[in-house]
Amino acid sequence: MSKAKSNRYKRSPGGGRYAALALFAVIVLAVGGYYLFSPGTKTVKQTLPSPPATTKSPLPPLTQNLPFGAATSQSAKSPLSGDKSYSESYPPSSARMSGEQLPATGLMAVIIDDMGANMHEARSLAAIGVPITFSIIPGLHSYREVATFASANGIETMIHIPMQAKEWPQRRLESNGLLVSMDEATITAHLEGYVQGIPKAVGANNHMGSEFTEHEEQMRVVLQALKGKGLFFVDSVTSPQTVGQRLAREIGMKSGRRNVFLDNEQDRAYISGQLLQAVRVAKKKGASIVICHPHPATIKTLAALLPGLEKQGITLVSASRLVN
Questions:
Q1: Is the peptide bond preceding residue 49 cis, with omega within 30 degrees of 0?
Q2: Cβ 292 vs Cβ 263: under 8 Å
Q3: The pTM is what?
Q4: For residues 255 and 206, what is the distance between their CA atoms, to the nearest angstrom?
Q5: Is 95 exposed, middle or buried (0-12, 13-18, 19+ CB in 10 A)?
Q6: pLDDT digits (tens, 9 = 90+) for 74-95
């Protein structure tokens, strides 16, 4: 019976292990709590270096001088100040240019007709930074100022002589324009006034004149007067029956002939297509003379495309380089 009593009070072998595990758990919790809530730990945490700030890569510069016919997926604002709607996207006609193989190089003169109305047009065109020629209509609001500005900035100037069109008088002509009905003395006096108003001009071309340039007698008076002043003449070819360049050659004065009008339509796709045609002419014949006007769509297109013509084998020159 005494043996049975001893076994009754004997401790179970697993009890010690449970107690040890419980004690170990208490120690682990105590140590973890110490490190978790210790002030020293917080100080170390606060002094850890913060991750470096993300540095943004600089935005690529806007492409100002794209090669003729280059395409871009980004939009850019117009070089004209204050224009918020301009998008630097190219029409299909010019985009095809980049894939064409035109064999030779050539010279091109870009004459901007109808200059003299205001200085904004002159400054916008000058900002393109390529050789161009201003043809200034005598008597327009700012014609003297534009002529002076052009001369100061190395831009060649011409006299844009207003001449009678077939639609006259329904189509307005400047008050100092030349009419077929004028006699030699009147025509000569008008030309003298043009030269005095634009004294730095090196040449002249006709403004309108689809009627006047067909009349040999009157055109001979004009060309003789220009020759006497040492000026050349570029026939704008506003009529297929013009006698301008033929007469100029007969009297032995330097002359040229317009090859392409760029902006008969105020549409960038059309203007770009016409410029492409002018490139073809320049490469085929060695040179081309193009005429356009200071319309907003024209200025935008020229600003986008002219600086890239050099990469297409075209050298831009003043009009005086292409007369002979």
A1: no
A2: yes
A3: 0.70
A4: 12
A5: middle
A6: 333 333 222 222 222 223 333 3
What's the rounded Cα separation, in Å, for the pair 107 and 150? 22
Among the listed residues 306, 311, 261, 266, the one whose alpha carbon sits nearest the alpha carbon of residue 288: 261
Please name every residue paired with 106 in a beta bridge, in sequence order, or none if there are none.
314
CB atoms within 10 A of CB 66: 18
How do residues 28-74 score in pLDDT, each as one tens digit? 565 555 554 544 444 334 443 444 443 333 323 323 333 333 333 23
233 token code pair: 């003449």
Contact assessment for residue 149 and residue 182, using Cβ atoms and an 8 Å cutoff: no
How far apart CA 136 and CA 114 sit, in angstroms, is 6
Residues 6+ apart with CB under 8 A from 112: 125, 132, 133, 134, 135, 292, 293, 294
Which H helix or E strand runs over 5?
Answer: helix 2-8
Distance CA 126, CA 166 (A): 33
Give me the half-sphere count of Cα atoms (radius 13 Å) on the Cβ side of residue 214: 10
Q: What six digits make up the tokens of 135?
A: 């043809």
Q: How far is CA 262 from CA 123, 179, 180, 186, in A?
A: 20, 27, 28, 33
Q: How far apart are CA 312 and CA 324, in angstroms?
A: 25
- Tell me 10's DSSP state: P
Check if the beta carbon of residue 237 is closer than 8 Å to that of residue 267.
Answer: no
Nearest to 267 by CA among 296, 290, 308, 291: 296
Which tens digits make up the pLDDT trace of 94-150? 333 444 555 589 999 999 999 999 999 999 999 999 999 999 999 999 999 999 999
Assign domain 97-322 one CATH number from 3.30.9.100, 3.20.20.370, 3.30.565.10, 3.40.50.2300.
3.20.20.370
Residues 6 or more apart whose CB falls under 8 angstroms from that of 166 comprise: 210, 211, 239
Encoding tokens for residue 185? 């003395």
Q: Which helix (H) or strand (E) holds 208?
A: strand 203-208
The answer to whether the CB of 254 falls within 8 A of the CB of 232 is yes
The DSSP secondary-structure symbol of 58 reads P
